[in-house]
UniProtKB/TrEMBL annotation:
Cofactor binding notes: Binds 1 FAD per subunit.
Source organism: Alpinimonas psychrophila
Lineage, highest ranks first: Bacteria, Bacillati, Actinomycetota, Actinomycetes, Micrococcales
FAD/NAD(P)-binding domain residues: 4-313
Keyword Oxidoreductase: yes
Keyword Nucleotide-binding: yes
Cofactor: FAD
Segments passing through the bilayer: none
Stated name of the protein: Dihydrolipoamide dehydrogenase
């Protein structure tokens, strides 16, 4: 039986980062992947979605900047570039790369049969240490009649060769709002159905409100507070019946209704792993799941983002190589790539209240506060909200909806993670004119009374 120092189960961003570091350190590593090395992110999620959101964003930039006009979108060109970006759904370069770096690459579905024992098809192997990095899969509600309709997830959406004329998107969180933005930018008639009373419910209520305004302005028809109950087909249209008695129809129905950790029937429990109530692998602060078993990425159910999967990959590689680094999730950015971008870091006010943190909040309208929005757009858009812990005088939360917010939220992310005192932040000198100047404008309003 083949024996390895480490076996990595699943080669999405989390598995890739851990494997890469362990190979560099000279470990004998087996990387096992049932589909494509790169995972959901590289082929069906982050990469194609951000690639396909970019043309619409560039057109908006042209439309809103003074003195430039004439941007047109081409689905033919955009989808050709998307195909390049998703490597034409081919990972032979990745397989060759990992093999060259000394890994044993095994294609197939891995399951654990006993501590340190793994089966992939007919192949049995043992490993001193196991890293579970099997990601997540979409949740599709079990609607009556769902088999009659054209139902898509992110996979069909982001690998489409032709676009539908119309789409109903169910779920108003990150996938639902980004997908609506992308499809609407290419002229698809979009209805976005969301059962909550505001979009992006994990963020501040104000974020959901502003997102509703901006998305509606692009022609997306947003229906809040309604749930899909049944589905049926009517000619070439897929129909969704809603719990308020109305129905909506389109060429395709896209489910953006969340994801669940991929842990079922993979034998992880046989290695001592404990699964949580949502099927997630329970891990400690070193991402350790059991004796000689670690887990990274969506499968841990912690913060289902690629940058978190990669961070956990670094933590686990460090632990296996004898380090003692602990994962720390405070202040990690959460960006939704709508137009404009929606970015947040740290706590919402409700979360701070729950933790008994005394807070002060401030929201500023960027156009009234700094110059950059005016040099950037003729009709500037943008807001920044900050949440300050008034006892410790540090930031604990931030959100922004504005052009490039996904870039400049990192200043708040660092301030929250490093507990940078407000006084130090007030002494920060941001480039003029930049969106970063918004922090000074907002912080001066938050400044404690003693100053
Ligand atoms: C539409 C969409 C857009 C997104 N955009 C962003 C974004 O812009 N930024 C961001 O940070 N996050 C984004 N995400 C989230 C991001 O895709 C995930 O957080 C990320 O892919 C998680 O990485 P992972 O390594 O945990 O898992 P995955 O990327 O899911 O990879 C897991 C891998 O494990 C393999 N696998 C599973 N089971 C087995 C098994 N038994 N044996 C062998 N292999 C197995 C799978 O085939 C897969 O390749 C998006 C998600 C979606 C759906
Ligand atoms: N830019 C990014 O970083 C990015 C982009 C896309 C996705 N992601 C990640 O991928 C994961 C999946 O995203 P998501 O938006 O699918 O999931 P999600 O869990 O964030 O949201 C799913 C939404 O669907 C709604 N919903 C569920 N069932 C429903 C039903 N039957 N009828 C109506 N609404 C229903 C829920 O109320 C929820 O608001 C998330 O964790 C997200 O963070 C990240």
């Amino acid at each position: 039986m083949e024996h390895f120092d480490v076996a990595v189960l699943g080669m999405g961003p989390g598995g890739e980062v851990a494997a890469g570091r362990l190979l560099k350190a000279g470990k004998k590593v087996a990387v096992i992947e049932r589909e494509l090395i790169g995972g959901e992110c590289a082929y069906w999620a982050c990469v194609p979605s951000k690639t396909l959101l970019r043309p619409g964003e560039a057109r908006t930039a042209v439309e809103r900047a003074a003195g430039v006009s004439g941007a047109e979108l081409s689905w033919f060109e955009a989808s050709k570039y998307r195909d390049y970006m998703i490597r034409h759904l081919d990972d032979k370069t990745q397989i060759a790369g990992y093999s060259r770096d000394g890994a044993t690459v095994i294609k197939g579905e891995a399951s654990v049969t006993a501590p340190g024992h793994i089966r992939v098809g007919d192949r049995e192997l043992t490993a001193e240490k196991i890293i579970i990095a099997t990601g997540s899969e979409p949740i599709i509600p079990d609607l009556e009649g769902i088999d009659q309709i054209t139902a898509w997830t992110n996979r069909e959406t982001y690998t489409a060769t032709t676009l539908p004329k119309s789409a109903v998107i169910i779920g108003g969180s990150a996938v639902g709002t980004e997908t609506s933005t992308f499809l609407a930018s290419f002229g698809v008639k979009v209805i976005l159905i969301h059962r909550g009373d505001r979009l992006l419910e994990r963020e501040e209520p104000r974020v959901g409100e502003l997102a509703f305004t901006y998305l509606s302005e692009t022609g997306i028809n947003i229906r809040l507070g309604v749930s899909a109950t049944k589905a049926h087909r009517s000619g070439d249209q897929s129909v969704i019946e809603l719990d308020d008695g109305t129905q909506v129809s389109a060429d395709v129905i896209i489910f953006a209704t969340g994801r669940t950790p991929r842990t079922q029937n993979l034998g992880f429990e046989l290695a001592g792993v404990i699964l949580g109530e949502h099927g997630q692998v329970q891990v400690d602060e070193h991402c350790r799941a059991a004796e000689n078993v670690w887990a990274v990425g969506d499968v841990t159910g912690i913060m289902p983002f690629t940058h978190v999967a990669k961070y956990q990959g670094r933590i686990v590689a460090d632990a296996i190589l004898g380090g003692d680094r602990k994962a720390f999730y405070q202040g990690i950015p959460r960006v939704v790539f709508t137009d404009p971008e929606i970015a947040a870091a740290g706590l919402t006010q409700a979360q701070a209240d729950q933790q008994g943190i005394k807070t002060k909040v401030i929201e500023i309208d960027l156009a009234k506060s700094i110059s950059r929005p005016w040099t950037y757009e003729e009709n500037p858009r943008g807001h920044l909200g900050l949440l300050m812990d008034t006892e410790r005088n540090v930031l604990v939360g931030a959100w922004a909806i504005a052009p490039l917010a996904g870039e400049w939220i990192h200043q708040a992310s660092l301030a929250i993670r490093a507990h940078i005192p407000i006084d130090t932040l007030l002494d920060q000198v941001a480039q003029y004119p930049s969106y970063n100047e918004a922090y000074l404008a907002a912080l001066e309003k938050l400044r404690p009374a003693s100053h």
